[in-house]
């Protein structure tokens, strides 16, 4: 007990952290290992202990004792007894049930006979059980390995999967020490460490899991290092065609794999090769099957065959937090393949983090964003929230609008245009992205700023052309919709102005900041501005969007647009 410490642990599993405390940064980094940030107003941040946050900690090697020691180190008061019990209980649940292979049989085992009995009687797990072998062992339907893992996590006992993996087709490859542009190349220490944590030297405990690294920190390189470790045919899934091309470019640039052994499987091409790069969009394309009499039958996904069309030894899920629900379904059925998830944030707006845990795997590696910033691997970023007011007419419209329409009125507030013009002018010598959600708003800004507009309707060819012009400095500013949230390599972008977003999406905020985090050749700062309408749903959603970045150590400077314009 030390009243001068920065945190208070409460019996409802919440943890309060003082922001203006000298030990704030230390305590924040400790809490991020096993708790989730829920609220982040100015002075007190609220974290919560959850089963999933504790299971991820356990999967990463943390013990209940190490969690309790960290809480005691930073807590003002003694830890409530029920919290001590909860932490020990939840962390000890991970691995109490194990999935193992015995020949062709898939077995569930536990030293706890009562727990095995509970599993046999639970309606969620019963459909996947074949028979009970003894008090400690159940035989499971081997084709339903993912489904039993989903069921077990839903009843509160995540399985440790030690059943191993199909080797997959051999693919000898190595990383180059020099790129095609004659630049020296060597993965960074944390990229090697991330791959090693995932692969675990080929042990059954390795081969499935998620690596969490900030945008701009080189998650693609982690994928390449892992491929070089495993040396097997690999399927890479990405958010869009631009990302597909970037992966292919990196493979050609930094490995010795011949171009003909790398295939693109998108809406434009359907090549399958020992390394195939595809999109979630093409995989979730639905087609209606026709019956014998021509009547329409149930929908199916014709491109799911990609998962079984080659003897894959590794499947990489880029931006795994975006994994669509249908791909979860097929992933449940391919648990014998090694699976690597790459992401900047484990946050999912649909709440399916538990499915990522059970089907892709637990978090195997992460580094606080601020730590990589201190080491110079990502740019130092300043975050600003700039608040604007509504006109009298818009205030009346806002007051009378339905709840959902309120956000749009506030997000498209015309008053955002003048402060955006001011910021663009202030950063006239920088590479500026103006990012938003609503096309009418973006079209207006593009016209006012005399800047190209890039949306989902822009062809891939035109997108690549604009990105290349931006990289070369021929274009100093781009107005972009949410298509620019993901997997775009614009290393010289150093200013982002967000005029509207997807409600309270924390993952989107992280992705948008990530667009400007590539380290700058001149060592300069990155600037992230989010323009919100004061005292509206826009401001409320903005507070929620900022949660993840606040957890990573970023602080938003709150400013008044009128004061900036009149300065």
Automatic annotation (TrEMBL):
The keyword ATP-binding applies. Transmembrane segments: none annotated. The keyword ATP-binding applies. It is an enzyme of class 5 (isomerase). GO terms for molecular function: 3'-5' DNA helicase activity; ATP binding; DNA binding; hydrolase activity. It catalyses: Couples ATP hydrolysis with the unwinding of duplex DNA by translocating in the 3'-5' direction; ATP + H2O = ADP + phosphate + H(+). InterPro entries: ATP-dep_DNA_Helicase (IPR050615), ERCC3_RAD25_C (IPR032438), Helic_SF1/SF2_ATP-bd_DinG/Rad3 (IPR014013), Helicase/UvrB_N (IPR006935), Helicase_ATP-bd (IPR014001), Helicase_C-like (IPR001650), P-loop_NTPase (IPR027417), XPB/Ssl2_N (IPR032830). Keywords: ATP-binding, Helicase, Hydrolase, Isomerase, Nucleotide-binding. Residues 177-474, 200-364 form the Helicase ATP-binding domain. Residues 418-567 form the Helicase C-terminal domain. Pfam families: ERCC3_RAD25_C, Helicase_C_3, ResIII. SUPFAM superfamilies: P-loop containing nucleoside triphosphate hydrolases. Its EC number is 5.6.2.4. Belongs to the helicase family. RAD25/XPB subfamily. This is DNA 3'-5' helicase.
């Amino acid at each position: 007990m030390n009243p001068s410490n920065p945190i208070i642990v409460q019996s409802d599993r919440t943890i309060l952290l003082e922001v203006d405390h000298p030990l704030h940064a230390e305590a924040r980094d400790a809490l991020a290992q096993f708790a989730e940030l829920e609220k982040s107003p100015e002075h007190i941040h609220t974290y919560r202990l959850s089963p999933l946050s504790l299971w991820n900690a356990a999967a990463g090697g943390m013990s209940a004792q190490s969690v309790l020691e960290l809480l005691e180190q930073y807590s003002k008061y003694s830890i409530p007894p029920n919290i001590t019990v909860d932490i020990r209980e939840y962390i000890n649940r991970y691995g109490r049930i194990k999935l193992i292979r015995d020949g062709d049989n898939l077995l569930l085992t536990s030293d706890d006979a009562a727990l095995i009995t509970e599993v046999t009687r639970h309606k969620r797990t019963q459909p996947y059980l074949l028979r009970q072998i003894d008090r400690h062992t159940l035989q499971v339907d081997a084709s339903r390995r993912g489904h039993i893992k989903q069921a077990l996590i839903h009843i509160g006992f995540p399985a440790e999967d030690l059943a191993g993996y199909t080797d997959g087709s051999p693919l000898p490859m190595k990383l180059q020490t020099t790129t095609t542009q004659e630049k020296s190349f060597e993965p960074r220490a944390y990229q090697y460490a991330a791959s090693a944590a995932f692969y675990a030297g080929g042990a059954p405990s390795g081969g499935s899991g998620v690596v969490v690294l900030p945008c701009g920190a080189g998650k693609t390189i982690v994928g390449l290092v892992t491929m070089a470790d495993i040396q097997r045919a690999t399927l890479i899934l990405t958010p869009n065609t631009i990302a597909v091309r970037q992966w292919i470019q990196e493979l050609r640039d930094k490995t010795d794999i011949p171009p003909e052994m790398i295939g693109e499987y998108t809406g434009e091409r359907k090549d399958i090769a020992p390394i195939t790069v595809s999109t979630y969009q093409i995989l979730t394309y639905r087609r209606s099957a026709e019956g014998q009499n021509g009547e329409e039958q149930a929908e199916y996904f014709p491109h799911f065959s990609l998962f079984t069309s080659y003897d894959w030894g590794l499947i990489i899920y880029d931006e795994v937090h975006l994994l669509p629900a249908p791909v979860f379904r097929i992933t449940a059925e391919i648990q014998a393949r090694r699976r690597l998830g790459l992401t900047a944030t484990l946050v999912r707006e649909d709440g399916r983090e538990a499915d990522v845990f059970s089907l892709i795997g637990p978090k195997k590696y992460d580094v606080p964003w601020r730590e990589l910033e201190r080491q110079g691997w990502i740019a130092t970023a300043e975050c600003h929230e700039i608040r604007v007011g509504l006109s009298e007419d818009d205030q009346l419209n806002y007051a009378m609008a339905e709840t959902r329409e309120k956000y749009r009125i506030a997000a498209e507030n015309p008053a955002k245009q003048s402060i955006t013009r001011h910021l663009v002018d202030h950063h006239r010598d920088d590479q500026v992205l103006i990012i938003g959600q609503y096309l009418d708003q973006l079209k207006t800004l593009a016209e006012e700023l005399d800047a190209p507009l890039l949306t989902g309707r822009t062809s891939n060819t035109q997108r690549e052309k604009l990105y290349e012009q931006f990289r070369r400095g021929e274009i100093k500013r781009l107005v972009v919709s949410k298509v620019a949230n993901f997997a775009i390599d614009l290393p010289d972008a150093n200013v982002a102005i967000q005029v509207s977003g997807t409600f309270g999406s924390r993952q989107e905020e992280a992705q948008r900041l990530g667009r400007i985090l590539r380290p700058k050749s001149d060592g300069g700062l990155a600037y992230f501005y989010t323009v919100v309408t004061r005292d509206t749903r826009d401001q409320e959603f903005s507070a929620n969007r900022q949660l993840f970045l606040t957890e990573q150590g970023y602080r938003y400077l709150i400013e008044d647009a009128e004061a900036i314009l009149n300065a």
